[in-house]
């Protein structure tokens, strides 16, 4: 089903507030598209893409809220089988009795929503206890604890990775290879500029100090030799530390450093 088809169905199903939100996003798409058709600039194209993405996201959110049907069990018997398979000791008489008490909510057609079953399990009044939770040995508890620690570790690593990627996108970190390329490029530009400067100024410098202009090539060779020596030292230097100051939100300043060989 296309976004246009889903949008048409949603407009007939959502409440007034959500319908207004969809109307506004639709208008934004039409407005930015019209602007792009009149002037096909990169800025207008970006505005149009942003508007379309905003509408697409809202359609997805509202579709999940209004149109996606919740999983349900066809009968109380299906719920009973689900609970027993999940490790809960429940008899048919108890389950049916809890339905009459309202502990397990039934739909008009006698079906049961999964959310109602989960609420029934979590309700202390239902008295449900899983077999796995009764008489759990020390070894089982240790395994459960180790599994929990492992899962927490995985989540922590994932959070740290996502935070690093977020900071990297904001410019708080720079790829080492990018710094190397930047340094090499700037060094090459600096060397080329200095060599050109030497070639164009050497005769003027000889005259400036009252020397023999015929010896300008010797002076130029000496200058270029010194330049080559310094560039060689620069290329072989170790532990060059580069620090970037990045303005953070508010008044805080954040710095980023990288070290290259």
Write the SSE topology.
Elements: H1 3-11, H2 16-38, H3 42-66, E1 72-73, H4 76-85, H5 92-101, E2 112-113, H6 114-122, H7 138-169, H8 176-208, H9 216-236, E3 240-247, E4 253-260
Antiparallel strand pairs: 1-2, 3-4
Helix pairs in contact: 1-3, 2-3, 8-9
Spatial order of the strands in the main sheet? 1-2
Q: Distance N terminus to C terminus?
A: 55 Å
**Whole-number mean pLDDT:** 78
Spans of at least 5 consecutive residues with low confidence = 252-261
What report would you give on this structure?
With 261 residues, the chain is mostly helical. It is 66% helix and 8% strand. The protein contains nine helices and four strands. The protein has helices at 3-11, 16-38, 42-66, 76-85, 92-101, 114-122, 138-169, 176-208, 216-236; strands at residues 72-73, 112-113, 240-247, 253-260. The strands form two sheets. A two-stranded antiparallel sheet has the order 1-2. A two-stranded antiparallel ribbon has the order 3-4. The longest helix has 33 residues, at 176-208. It is elongated and about 115 Å long. Mean pLDDT is 78; it is low at 252-261.
